[in-house]
Specification:
22% strand, 13 helices, seven-stranded mixed β-sheet, 40% helix, alpha/beta, Rossmann fold
Length: 273
Amino acid sequence: MVPIRYWCMRLLRRRLPQGLVEKMLDLGVFLQPGLDTRAPAQSVRLLGEACARHGLSLEGARVCVVGYGGSFGIGLALLDAGARHVVLQDPFAPLRRARIRQLDAERLRRYFVRRDGAWHPDPARITIERRRLEELAREQPGQMDVVFSSSVLEHVDNVETLVGACAQLVRPGGLNLHAIDLRDHYFRYPFEMLCYSRQTWEEWLNTSNLNRWRYGDYRRAFERYFNRCDTIVTEALPAEFARTKARIRPEFLTGDDTVDNVGTIRIEARRVA
């Protein structure tokens, strides 16, 4: 049975003016920004743990945060953790000024300068990058020790192109860590988006540019560019999947429920000689 509530919420979301959507994300009202914005210390803790697993460290590292979301909190947390330089890359997100105002001013003063009523980054420590990642990677190949994203890749149309840029940007032996949310972002129905044709999804229901890639799609994309690639399931949703399975379109099913019911994954990838 098609959940009418789902259609109503999706259609309502499509009609909201983008300016209102951005304001709701700023304030965390009904819509929540990504983990980098709302809980940057948690993101950095996960990143530090991943670096340690691979014999690396954030201490003295150059880190690029892909799709950072418009708040400086993730940059501050990385620099406080010992990173030498942080690149906050996002060609789309506006500055989350309400979120930035909530950050501790004393911490900001370590890495930013207050001028004309706004915080401006110290270019020796932090860079705000509005260009697409492919352009940045062409200009600075192999310049990053760590490339990181959280809940970004599921919103990207050209995933393989972006993964290729991530591989080009990181130095040999460096680390790519990407947390990816495979769930429908109307989280009450985590697999509902897989029940519709491409035309229906794109013309009526897709509100946050979800590409509907699955576990295997991401694994293959990363394995194309990296010779060491761990794809780790961080959440599986067997009960929710079982309730929806009969309606899911065949192109999203592999026949292995333990693969198809995956909700979130983490990919740790390296190019090692």
